[in-house]
Design goal:
mainly alpha, 3-stranded mixed sheet, elongated, single chain, about 40% helix
Length: about 230
């Protein structure tokens, strides 16, 4: 190995060590998340990503599980990943009606990290931010499906637009990988709202106005049968 290559490898190790030491002094440090980040960077991103600041901290967007943004708090760090700490409490939407099993909630949190690593990848490596799809367009989906194939998970649709996923029988990339994990993976903690829940139908009190509404939403023969028997 050449001296130059050795020097570069040593510099990278030193940078990673400095970032980890910096992170330890920040609020919301979690050693396990850094270990996973290193593992997944090597496995899914060819080791191309620069270690970010990973924090258990409130993300910028109100309803997001996490976010990934630019960071300039320490020379060498290019990104910051924030993961909502209340995930581990099981109090967020899609979690508050679940079992609150600690291991299941931890799995859910770690999948948020994997999701945000795809955003980090495009932020640092490709520059494709899928702005027209709030970050969940063709570039995100391509990388998510590449990783999913290695994990034995089904693919998601091309974008977060309904026509690109739901209308084709696929899940949305915006909720990846949570929406493609097998049933039971989160040990009963993840109970998403049903997208196919029947909509409420308002029926006018005026019979003339009510008939067209009833015809639109109900089978006429079955409706007449039910009215006759009631």
């Amino acid at each position: 190995m050449s001296t130059l290559a050795w020097t570069q490898e040593e510099a990278e190790r030193t940078l990673r060590r400095q970032i980890r030491e910096h992170a330890r002094g920040q609020e919301g440090y979690d050693a396990r998340l850094y270990d996973l980040w290193e593992e997944w960077n090597a496995r899914f991103f060819e080791g191309l990503l620069v270690p970010p600041l990973v924090q258990l901290a409130e993300p910028g967007q109100t309803h997001s599980y996490g976010d990934c943004c630019n960071y300039s708090g320490l020379a060498g760090i290019r990104s910051r990943i924030r993961l909502r700490p209340s995930i581990l409490d099981g109090t967020l939407h899609n979690l508050k009606h679940g079992s609150r099993n600690p291991e299941g909630l931890r799995r859910f949190l770690e999948d948020v990290l994997l999701h945000e690593m795809i955003h980090q990848y495009h932020q640092e490596i490709t520059g494709e931010n899928d702005a027209s799809w709030s970050g969940h367009g063709p570039a995100f989906s391509q990388k998510a499906n590449e990783i999913a194939a290695k994990l034995g998970l089904p693919p998601v649709g091309r974008t977060c637009k309904r026509r690109d996923h739901a209308d084709k029988g696929l899940q949305s990339p915006s909720q990846w990988p949570h929406d493609v994990r097998p049933a039971g993976y989160y040990l009963g903690t993840h109970v998403p709202a049903r997208a196919d829940k029947p909509k409420r139908v308002s029926v006018p009190l005026d019979i003339g106005q009510a008939v067209p509404v009833l015809r639109k939403h109900f089978d006429v023969v079955e409706l007449c049968r039910q009215l006759t028997e009631s």
